[in-house]
Amino acid sequence: MKESSNSANTTSVDICKRLGVRASSEEILELIHHVQSGVPVAVAATAAGVSIEDAQRPLLAMLIAKADAGYEAALVRVLSKAAMHDWHAAAFVLERRYPERWGRRQAERKSTEASTMRIRVAVPEAAREAAAADVNGEPSATRATGKDET
Q1: Burial level of 58, CB count in 10 A (0-12/13-18/19+)?
Q2: From CA 134, how far away is CA 39, in angstroms rounded?
Q3: Helices (H), the chain
Q4: Are 63 and 34 in contact (CB under 8 A)?
Q5: N or C: which end of the chain has fewer CB within 10 A?
Q6: Residue ranges covered by each domain of the chain
Q7: Verdict on whether the full-model pTM lies above 0.70
Q8: Backbone phi, then psi, for 10, in 5-degree steps?
């Protein structure tokens, strides 16, 4: 029995060496499990006792990315299943997956464009002069005399 446990321990050390990490195989497995459960990588690494430097090594980073993609795929399956029974979930999926057709930004952009529309109005010269006089604090000719001098 000692041989098989020693053999398993040697295999674990070989795997960690191949990954280029100082962490133990148990720590690596715990890290991967956390990431598969949705824990952010930095938090998962800390919780598992794996250094961020080790987590960023190419082979381990690839395993972490695969675990994270598996978690994302599981969430998409849950959301897609919920969308079949709840219109809120369906709307959420449509808005996020096809934002160019179903996103809220399209409607918000149109309302913003409408609210910032500029309108040009032709103003007679006399009205323009009266407005300028009001701005400068001068009484307009119409107000002073009560008659329009045009």
Answers
A1: exposed
A2: 66
A3: 2-19, 25-36, 41-48, 52-55, 58-83, 87-97, 99-102, 104-115, 125-136, 141-145
A4: no
A5: N
A6: 2-115
A7: no
A8: -65, -40
Phi, psi (rounded to 5 degrees) for 20: 75, 30
Q: Are 23 and 15 in contact (CB under 8 A)?
A: no
For the chain, how many residues are written?
A: 150
Q: Residue 115 corresponds to which tokens in the numbers above?
A: 């609210």
Segments in the chain below pLDDT 50: 1-4, 106
Nearest Cα to Cα of residue 70 among 44, 40, 37, 48: 37
Q: Could you tell me which of 57, 42, 50 has the C-alpha nearest to residue 24?
A: 50
Q: Give residue 1's pLDDT.
A: 43
- The owner of tokens 């119409």 is 142
